[in-house]
Design goal:
Helix 5 (79-104) runs antiparallel to helix 10 (204-228), helix 6 (111-134) packs parallel to helix 10 (204-228) and helix 9 (188-195) crosses helix 10. By secondary structure, the protein is an all-alpha fold. The protein has 12 helices and 4 strands.
Length: 295
């Protein structure tokens, strides 16, 4: 016996329902409007960090971390993981730009020194990643400020705040800079350029050595954070451990694209004034992050 037309219509509507919106499936914990705010914040973080990297000659992490922290705070991401995600995503987002720098300077790479630095850098990453995984968001915000403020002052003034002569201690200093980079998200090249001095500090080979060390630390630390944060509650959508994949996908290419614009801007305008402007923005963002973490 054939089903009545009305019953067949109802069954047809049930079995042939339209497929669910893929955006809803991918981001079940965040609305479309909040997702747009998140994406816009990530693009702004990449653009500002790229410009700052070009103007100040630094890695973008010192900008990415506080900006990304504020974006996640505005969206109500769990305060217990904000700093961890900001640091891990910052290190991952710097990999393409750092790789491009190393590729461009490959003629100045001294592989003997790179092999010598590798164990010290990996030990530093292991120590830093373990400490970061156990630390609270408040502790990480404070540590970031402790490292970032002297770095920003040195970059704004165009000179080192602390000029530590390397000598035979270069391996120890590389280890310490890898630890500091891992628990702050600031590139080791930025930290070393502001704290370490030597007779060949301004040489191409020395700068290339710092870039190679920054690349090693960024890759190793991002991988460590992906493992350490696996399955943690409260992470933002599309996170691979503590590394936010959406943040990486939006920040990394924008940073890479805007860094040359920052370098061109530095040649077109008063460099000292530009340094002060960007340094001021970093200080304000970091101070606001500290205030938010402690209140």
């Amino acid at each position: 016996m054939r089903k009545p037309y009305a019953l067949r219509s109802r069954l047809s509507r049930r079995t042939c329902a339209p497929p669910p919106d893929p955006c809803v499936d991918l981001f079940p914990t965040i609305s479309h409007s909040d997702l747009g705010v998140f994406a816009l914040g990530l693009v702004i973080a990449g653009a500002v960090s790229g410009l700052a990297a070009g103007v100040l000659g630094i890695g973008g992490g010192i900008v990415i971390v506080p900006v990304l922290y504020h974006v996640m705070a505005a969206l109500g991401i769990d305060s217990g993981v904000r700093m961890h995600v900001a640091i891990a995503t910052s290190l991952a987002a710097m990999i393409p730009a750092t790789l491009a720098h190393v590729q461009n300077a490959r003629g100045h790479i001294e592989w003997r020194l790179a092999r010598k630095d590798l164990p010290a850098l990996l030990i530093g990453v292991a120590v830093g990643a373990a400490a970061t995984a156990m630390a609270s968001g408040v502790s990480l915000a404070l540590l970031f400020a402790i490292v970032a403020f002297p770095v920003v002052v040195g970059l704004a003034l165009g000179k080192r705040v602390f000029a530590i002569e390397t000598g035979r201690r270069i391996v120890v200093l590389m280890t310490l800079s890898a630890i500091a980079s891992t628990f702050t998200g600031i590139a080791t090249a930025t930290i070393n350029r502001c704290f370490i001095g030597s007779s060949d500090t301004e040489g191409d080979r020395y700068r290339t050595r710092l870039r190679v060390s920054a690349l090693i630390v960024a890759i190793a630390a991002a991988a460590s954070f992906a493992v350490a944060g696996w399955g943690k509650p409260g992470l933002p959508p599309e996170s691979f451990g503590y590394v936010n994949l959406l943040g990486f996908a939006l920040i990394a290419p924008v940073l890479l694209a805007t860094e040359p614009a920052g370098a061109a801007l530095a040649h077109m305008m008063d460099l000292r004034r530009l340094r002060l402007v960007f340094a001021g923005l970093i200080v304000i963002a970091t101070a606001r992050m500290l205030w938010d973490a402690f209140t």
